[in-house]
Task: inverse folding
């Protein structure tokens, strides 16, 4: 059944109005009663709404922040402490009016943003990243997406913990970074040490000069240059003998489409420094550097021929 | 059948539709917010029923939803509610939307001929084992949605992303962008209409 586009527009208006402060349910009922096609239009708007919800997690990684041309309220520069924190209160929609602990959320815009979480913890969020914590509790944060660099003064009485999906990283007084690259959580330590564990799994200790990749319940450790830790703070990505699929995973945080690697090229290695710029040319730069073709495969870009 | 004059929590599970003409609020119920909401539900029951009946095209379904709502109110633990009428309409509408969604999902699953179990992830139902056709369709739909969002006018795109993807409330988007709440709503409507025009859903009812 094709529904009149004007009705679909009206249904969208209703969807938004019902989501507002003082919806007029009587008017809504009258509108529905005008014709069965109005009910069908409402169902169609709900379906759209549901598809948006279903795709929302992937949408947040597929839409780079640079797209929005209007000035956003976040910019890198000097700010007062309170303003730098720029918290937005996030209350899960399903809980209506029940009592819930208030969550604070910090979201960065098109550039890395640095702020002090409290007197001992300094955090730099990479562009287009989201960090959450319970209001009043700064001993534990969640890296919801993107990457962050942490600078934590050691305090034996108070641990600091970062959670990223199923992985938790417990600080023992350090400088370290956490990246979320799709299903993988990457952790690298520039100074001090951290403990990493999957929920219910064995903890692994990571010390300065080490990098770990946590994925599918397994944690793999490699050596890392201290300079490469959180290098995105300086607008660079530094790799030394890194597997090409790993490089692709990490640049995907910035590119317009996720970057994947031709299975035939899984074992290629890359060493070098990539300038991030606005993020969009990273896959091209990498491909040029390595002398590889690049193929647009619709929802992703592949290094190597074919899709 | 003997109808009790004073209804308490325990017997409610066993009597069918409460007989509103003889209904009295039990004194212990009066204390709880749930009890207050139930009284409110009885007062606005005709309005709720009318909305649900037209929304579901079926009076029996409407009555089922009201019953479900009644039962939910028993265990609801909420603080004081500013606008109980709106709150109850919202709950009723949500329940009716859940019903429609579940029926549609069941119909589509049968059409797929795949045996899947539905699990929920953060409140969004996901099929455990979507068919390859379904997966490909989902990927296609995601790609179209990304394109459509990027083609949205700047302000509408910004509001849409902050509200629907990043999860901020209307009020928080308004304060973050320095615009009024009604401007947020107008932009959300623009965004949804834009998506509605640009995406073809795969024709499932």
Result:
């Amino acid at each position: 059944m094709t529904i009149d586009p004007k009705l679909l527009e009206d249904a969208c208006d209703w969807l938004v109005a019902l989501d507002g402060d003082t919806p007029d349910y009587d008017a809504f009922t009258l509108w529905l009663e005008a014709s069965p096609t109005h009910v069908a239009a409402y169902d169609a708007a709900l379906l759209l709404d549901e598809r948006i919800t279903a795709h929302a997690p992937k949408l947040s990684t597929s839409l780079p922040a640079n797209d929005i041309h209007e000035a956003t309220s976040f910019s890198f520069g000097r700010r007062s402490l309170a303003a730098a924190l720029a918290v937005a209160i996030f209350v899960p929609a399903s809980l209506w009016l029940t009592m819930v602990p208030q969550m604070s959320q910090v979201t960065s815009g098109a550039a890395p943003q640095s702020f002090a979480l409290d007197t001992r913890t300094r955090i730099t969020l990479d562009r287009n990243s989201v960090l959450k914590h319970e209001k009043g509790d700064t001993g534990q944060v969640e890296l919801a997406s993107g990457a962050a660099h942490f600078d934590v003064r050691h305090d034996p009485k108070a641990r600091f913990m970062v959670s990223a999906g199923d992985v938790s990283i417990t600080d023992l007084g350090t400088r370290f970074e956490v990246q979320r690259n799709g299903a993988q959580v990457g952790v690298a330590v520039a100074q001090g040490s951290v403990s990493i564990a999957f929920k219910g799994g064995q903890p692994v200790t990571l010390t300065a000069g080490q990098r770990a990749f946590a994925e599918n319940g397994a944690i793999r450790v490699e050596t890392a240059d201290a300079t490469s830790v959180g290098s995105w703070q300086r607008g660079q990505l530094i790799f030394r003998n890194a597997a090409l699929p790993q490089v692709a995973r990490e640049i995907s945080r910035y590119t317009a489409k996720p970057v994947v690697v031709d299975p035939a090229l899984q074992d290629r290695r890359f060493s070098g420094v990539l300038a991030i710029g606005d993020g969009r040319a990273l896959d091209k730069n990498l491909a040029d550097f390595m002398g590889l073709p690049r193929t647009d495969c619709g929802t992703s870009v592949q290094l190597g021929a074919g899709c | 059948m003997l109808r009790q004059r004073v209804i308490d929590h325990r017997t409610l599970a066993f009597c069918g539709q409460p007989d509103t003409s003889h209904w009295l609020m039990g004194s212990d119920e009066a204390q709880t917010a749930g009890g207050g909401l139930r009284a409110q539900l009885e007062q606005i029951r005709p309005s709720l029923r009318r909305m649900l009946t037209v929304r579901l095209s079926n009076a029996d379904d409407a009555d089922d939803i009201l019953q479900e709502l009644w039962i939910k109110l028993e265990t609801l633990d909420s603080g004081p509610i500013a606008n109980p009428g709106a709150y109850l309409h919202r709950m009723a509408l949500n329940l009716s939307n859940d019903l429609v969604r579940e029926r549609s999902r069941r119909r589509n699953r049968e059409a797929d001929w795949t045996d899947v179990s539905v699990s929920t992830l953060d409140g969004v139902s996901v099929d455990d084992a979507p068919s390859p056709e379904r997966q490909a369709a989902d990927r296609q739909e995601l790609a179209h949605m990304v394109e459509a969002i990027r083609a949205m006018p700047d302000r509408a795109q910004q509001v849409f992303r902050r509200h629907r993807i990043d999860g901020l409330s209307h009020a928080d988007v308004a304060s973050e962008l320095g615009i009024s709440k009604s401007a947020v709503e107008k932009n959300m409507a623009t965004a949804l209409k834009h998506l509605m025009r640009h995406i073809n859903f795969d024709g499932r009812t």
